[in-house]
Design brief:
The chain is α+β, with helices and mostly antiparallel strands. It is built from 14 helices and 14 strands.
């Protein structure tokens, strides 16, 4: 009998029930899309930000100490501390190897340009380097990936361009250097004539430098197999209290805290593991980049959370209006049920079952529509597929149930106030 009454009510008011289902589906679809994107957006945002530079710098211990104490940077000629090029592949053997997106070595030295007294900084690096890793895998890495936003006139170098360089825009402007010109580099009395293959505008200190393939710089400075520093681009988790404590003093962590920190992709834990993999190295986070990534990620997730909340509030208001209108239309039917002895609890249960059945239909439809919306957002904003998170299903189910119940409260209160005598006499 109860089920027949529910079925009859659903079919008699199919127009309103469809509107309720549509309202629920709209809220569920937005919640599904936002939650899936929010749970997957961390890697996507980090991946986007990685195209704008490294967030970790690795230096020799001696050079790092000089930099901390006296502000003397690598390549200044004061420190003779170097890292080994042969250990670069070790970076991809750490616990968070898959979070290492890219890395590039540098060898910095001072040089004279075209026999002038003014010194410029010559930087040797990888441009597009194929590296065999200790794990048996291979990796393509280098400056072209790390500095993809540079504005380059001419062409990028390759690692095989032994007689070519790239010149920063400020150096080129001061010395009237054009693409295709020949320049003379003098390091400690040893000179070499090189051709300018490209002029770049990086918008930073790099515009004061000249870049050459790493092997050329090593041979020119008689430092085979040595590098001054490494820039690493890694996907990281935003810092929290635990990571900040670890960055200040690892020994202050308990064993359990240490395990959590070590097994989480904080920038400090990745730096620590790089130091374990590269001999006599100090890995430091580029704080401006790392903190900006965390702030952008938090704001993006907060925005999506607010959109989810607002969509659900809108759905609750829509459901409230529709269900209240439905109860008012059925006031005579409800009054008759009360008159023949039906209790308020039974009548309220009947209305709630009708709404929940409609909510199930709307929630399921909205969930699958939300998966489509998530992919549209992923493709249009991040240019990537959004991974479907199974944990979103129970979350959306709970949210839909709560929103449906919240939207039904005003109509249930109206239902409880109905007096059989009044509604049956048309009052």
């Amino acid at each position: 009998m109860f089920l027949r009454m529910v079925k009859g009510a659903l079919f008699r008011q199919k127009g309103k029930m469809l509107m309720i289902a549509f309202t629920i589906a709209l809220g569920a679809s937005l919640a599904t899309a936002m939650l899936n994107v929010m749970l997957d957006v961390g890697d996507k945002v980090n991946q986007e930000l990685k195209t704008y530079g490294a967030n970790i710098t690795v230096m020799p211990k001696g050079a790092s100490l000089l930099d901390d104490l006296y502000g003397i940077e690598e390549g200044s000629g004061v420190s003779d501390q170097y890292l080994r090029e042969s250990e670069l592949g070790n970076i991809k053997t750490i616990f968070w190897a898959f979070n290492i997106v890219d890395f590039t070595p540098y060898l910095n030295t001072k040089a004279r340009l075209n026999s002038r007294n003014d010194e410029v900084e010559l930087v040797g690096t990888w441009f597009s380097h194929y590296l065999n890793l200790p794990t048996g895998e291979s990796l393509n890495t280098g400056m072209i990936n790390m500095k993809s936003w540079w504005d380059v006139s001419g062409e990028w170098l390759t690692d095989q361009d032994e007689n070519f360089v790239m010149v920063g825009s400020l150096v080129a402007g001061r010395n009237n250097i054009q693409v295709g010109d020949s320049i003379t580099i003098d390091i400690g009395g040893q000179t070499k004539e090189l051709t300018v293959k490209g002029i770049f505008d990086a918008g930073g200190d790099e515009d004061e430098q000249i870049y050459a393939p790493l092997r050329v710089a090593q041979e020119f400075t008689a430092r085979p197999g040595l590098i001054s520093r490494i820039e690493v681009s890694a996907l990281t988790t935003p810092d929290n209290e635990l990571s900040r404590r670890a960055a200040q003093n690892i020994k202050s962590l308990s064993i359990k805290e240490y395990e959590i920190w070590y097994c989480t992709a904080y920038v400090s834990s990745i730096c620590y593991q790089i130091e374990e993999a590269v001999t006599d190295s100090v890995a430091k986070a580029v704080r401006q980049v790392a903190e900006s990534e965390g702030a952008i990620l938090e704001k993006t997730q907060l925005l999506m959370l607010l959109i989810t909340i607002l969509s659900l509030v809108g759905s609750a208001l829509g459901i409230s209006n529709l269900v209240t209108a439905s109860v008012m239309e059925r006031s005579r039917e409800i009054g008759l049920l009360k008159a023949i002895g039906a209790h308020d609890g039974a009548i309220s249960g009947l209305v709630l079952v009708e709404i929940l059945v409609t909510a199930v239909v709307g929630g399921i439809s909205g969930y699958f529509a939300g998966l489509g919306f998530a992919q549209i957002i992923g493709r249009s904003v991040f240019g990537a597929v959004i991974d479907i998170k199974p944990m979103v299903i129970p979350i959306v189910a709970v949210l839909v149930s709560l929103v449906t119940l919240a939207g039904s409260v005003p109509s249930i209160r109206l239902l409880l106030k109905l007096r059989p005598a009044e509604v049956l006499h048309g009052r």
